[in-house]
Design goal:
GO terms for molecular function: carbohydrate derivative binding; glucose-6-phosphate isomerase activity; monosaccharide binding. Keywords: Gluconeogenesis, Glycolysis, Isomerase. InterPro entries: G6P_Isomerase, Phosphoglucose_isomerase_CS, SIS_dom_sf, SIS_PGI_1, SIS_PGI_2. This protein has about 425 residues and is an alpha/beta fold. Helix content is about 45%, strand content about 10%. The strands form two sheets. The protein has a five-stranded mixed β-sheet with strand order 1-10-9-7-8, with helices on both faces. The protein has a five-stranded parallel β-sheet with strand order 3-2-4-5-6, sandwiched between helices. It is globular. The mean pLDDT is about 95. The site of 5-phosphoarabinonic acid has 15 residues, from loops.
Length: about 425
Amino acid sequence: TDLTVDLGNALAAEARPGVSEGALDRLDDRVARAHETITAGMAADGFGYASLGLPERTDPGAIEAAVADLDADHVLTVGIGGSALGAATVSAALGLADRHHTLDNVDPVETRRLLDALPLDRTTVNVVSRSGTTAETLANFLVVREAMDEAGVDWTERTVVTTGAEGPLRTAATEQGLPALSVPEGVPGRFSALSAVGLVPAAVLGGDIEGVVRGGAAGREALLAGGSLFDYPGYAYGAVAYALEQRGATVTAMLPYAESLEPFAEWFAQLWAESLGKDGLGQTPARALGATDQHSQLQLYRGGRHDKLVTLVRPRERADMAVPATDVEGMSYLGDATLGELLDAEFEATEASLAAADQPNIRVELPRVDGPGIGRLLYEMEAACVLAGELLGVETFAQPAVEWGKRAARGLLGGGEFPEAEAVAEKTTRV
Ligand code: PA5
């Protein structure tokens, strides 16, 4: 699980803007102080900081045992935000994307399409909500239950729930005798990928969840042994992202070069936005995919405003495929290559092209996209985010704007008395 973060193209060089080495040295004193806060929070299982202790607390064997009776070809996760994106990321990295589906929206057209497409008698329904009160999740759960009833499938035999200690979802699980796992205490949704929240679908489908937790554990060990941005990759990334934000890089583009990491970019976008977007601070995340988005977004990243950090992520090893030989002029050079070599060439060309245009970028490499690889990558980005939050001085583990919207939506639907709903009504104006 040897993950590396290469900061070379984010540092200032002659006539190139960026973070100077002197500034990094000075920042490292603040990183050392933040490290004390972070490790003390981890030791005390403090709210949010407990997330970085998850690899020690998560027992893959217990998760596998809890779902052992759920024999299924497909998993349908019903959850949203932190209760969906981590699981989608882990499943995709383990090669299970075709069998793990997510209902994280209440678009009736998509819900209908998915329910019609899935063999419901071979599908496990994985309902996830930390609070147990999120309207989108509860509504989709009720819709899926009814669809199973109508298809003559006993949903109580095919459903697993992951939720907090209390709430309507816990009550429903208890009343129906459903297998129920717990969202660990002190862990906000977007930091919960390395718990049952992120691992149940892969466990049902036979994925290597032990490897995912092992990758996270390697990250935790490296964090505890570190304390400096110069010797721990998560802190290197978090500190430089922070320093660039302070110097005007208010956009952060995540650009993995592996289809199986596409959901990772989405997961990262939530982590960064919901944790750091506070008090008028934070970077706006952009989701991209290499090499596809070289043919769309790259123009902006290279030639647009100098307000961005671009992170390129790739595995050092992947399964490869040769390009067949041809004599056709203008195509024959490709016959000596593999698709993997072409993807690597695109990666390196993009990196160099951004650097030549003075656009700061960071290279993150993992050994492979597999269980340990994704576990380590998720852990390092969580640690980076927690550090960046300390340096920015924001409440990393709160999400008041998200909660505001949830209360407003519930109020509008008659789910309780919420002043936020009145604000929605007052502000609605048609022109
Ligand atoms: O990270 C977060 O806290 C949020 O994105 C939540 O995960 C999301 O709002 C879903 O909440 P819940 O798990 O309570 O249904």
